[in-house]
Amino acid sequence: MRLLLPLLFAASSLLAHTVQGRDADFLKHATGIHAGPFLYLGAKHMVTGYDHLLFLFGVIFFLYRMRDVAIYVTCFAVGHSITLLTGVLSGIHVNPYIVDALIGLSVVYKAFDNLDGFKTLLGFQPNTKLAVLVFGLIHGFGLATKLQDFNLSPDGLVPNMISFNVGVELGQLVALSLILLVMTQWRRTSRFLRHASLVNVLLMTAGFVLIGYQLAGYAWGDAA
What we know:
- Helices cover 79% and strands 0% of the residues.
- By secondary structure, it is mostly helical.
- The chain has one domain.
C-alpha cells in the first residue's frame, strides 16, 4: 500500500515526466555523439516516468519468481525499445496525448487483470506476455514523442538514441529493483493479500486519471 500511494499521488497530481530546464536545452542544441548525457537522460526519464512505473508495478504485482519477473520485464523492454528507436530514427510521429492515454489504459488493463476481471466478466484470460509486449510498444512511442518535440540533430542521432535506450533500461532496472525490494517485504506480511484488491483498485484509478488528463489535453489542443 505504501508503495502505491506515492505513485498514485504522482499520477493524480499530473506530474508528467516531461523534459524541462537544462535537460531540454541540451536536447535542443546537442550535435554530434553524446553517449553519456543521453544515457543519463534515458535513465532519468524512466525513473521519473510515473506512468511506466505504475504499469510495471501492476505487471510484477503477483509475480513471485525472479524468472517470471525477468520474462515479463523483457517483453516490456523489447516492446518499448522497438518503438522508441523506430519512432525517433524513422520520424514516425504519433499524437502524444493519444499515446499517453493508451499508456494510462495499460495501467487500467493490468490492474483489471490482477483483479481477475477478464476471467470473472468475460470467462477467459488474455495472453499476459503478449499484452505486456504490445503495451511495451505503446510505451516506447510515448518515449519517442517526448524526444521528437526537440527536433534532435541528425548528427550522431543513432548512437545517441542507442545510448538513451540503454539508459532507459538501466533506469528501469534501478526502479524495478526498488519496487521489488519493497514488495518483497510487503508480501511477507498478512497485509499483502488483505490489501491486494484495494491496491489494484487504486492502481486502476490512477490509470483512469492519466487517461482523463490526456484526453482532456487532446480535446483542448484540438479546440485551440
